[in-house]
Amino acid sequence: MKVLSYGEVNLRFTPPDYQLLAQTNQLTYQVTGTGVNLLTNLSNFGMETTLLTTLPDNSVGKMAAANIRKYGIKDHHIQFNGNHMGSYFVELGYGVRPTVVTYQNRLASAFCQADPASYPIEEAVKENDIIHICGISLLLNERTRETALKLAACANEFGKPLYFDFNYRPSLNTEHSKAFIKEQYEKILSLAHTVFGGIRDLTELLDIEVNEELPYLEQLQMGISIFKQKYNVTNYVGTNRGFENHEHSLAGFMDGESFKVSSTMPVDLLDRIGAGDAYAAGIIFGLTNNWPEERILEFAVSNAVLAHTITGDVPHTTLEEVEALMEGRQQSLIR
């Protein structure tokens, strides 16, 4: 099974040993991005993956492409143009101190400045079985929006299932009204097979009304039911995070054949960024293998829980590790 993802590539800079930026003059970097994270994980699971993006035409871009190849992702649809790559700094939290993410000027990146006509969209779609688009591309600028919408339309034309991740972030919408952004999302939602999101995406962006007096899961189920009927989406999938008695937990939900919730798993939180991409990768892998929905959910949540234990955005988990966690066979030392 072949998967294509369209999305931005970023450089993540992180101070060592949970330090703040003010404490150190040392940083590590990692090549990341929703598409990179998702495809790396699916590549680890044995799927053939390709990234559609634009990198700067300089040594930074060449370095990023080399890392993408190292992750097992095909790079033949990566374009090179411009001289800037989006970046952000992550000051890892510890205990009661939260993780802080500070973005650089991503709108000046080669990805955001790329001409939609520069991408071989039809060729890329024909080569692959599944198309994935991150919703951030609808928030950045007109160029990324146009590319995402063209890709979604092409996937629909050739009968390729479209997996769409809301990733709605109001902070990125600085130029348009919420109504405009809602309209752009609706153009893709009507073409999507599986959508990743939460209740806030439904109520805050799409203005779907739920009875807030109901328990949370019933509100969620009501909102998803309205959403699926309106947009004719096959699956709506997401996660529920918990925090009680100073302990983090994670559960997944999926509304496909029917509304289902996974078991709740405790989370040892080393680095939470990228765990959502691991969850999405688990869902995609399970659906493409035609697993029962209950197994898909347990696999995806287990994968996300493991991703929390890995430093950096990219979830370098393997099929064997996830299955061992699901079956209670995990070990503290492997030799």
From TrEMBL:
Assigned keywords, A-Z: Kinase, Transferase
Coiled coil: none
InterPro entries referenced in this protein's UniProt entry, alphabetically: Carb_kinase_PfkB-like, PfkB_dom, Ribokinase-like
Span of domain Carbohydrate kinase PfkB: 2-309
GO MF assignments: kinase activity
Pfam families: PfkB
SUPFAM superfamilies, sorted: Ribokinase-like
Similarity field: Belongs to the carbohydrate kinase PfkB family.
Protein's name in the database: PfkB family carbohydrate kinase
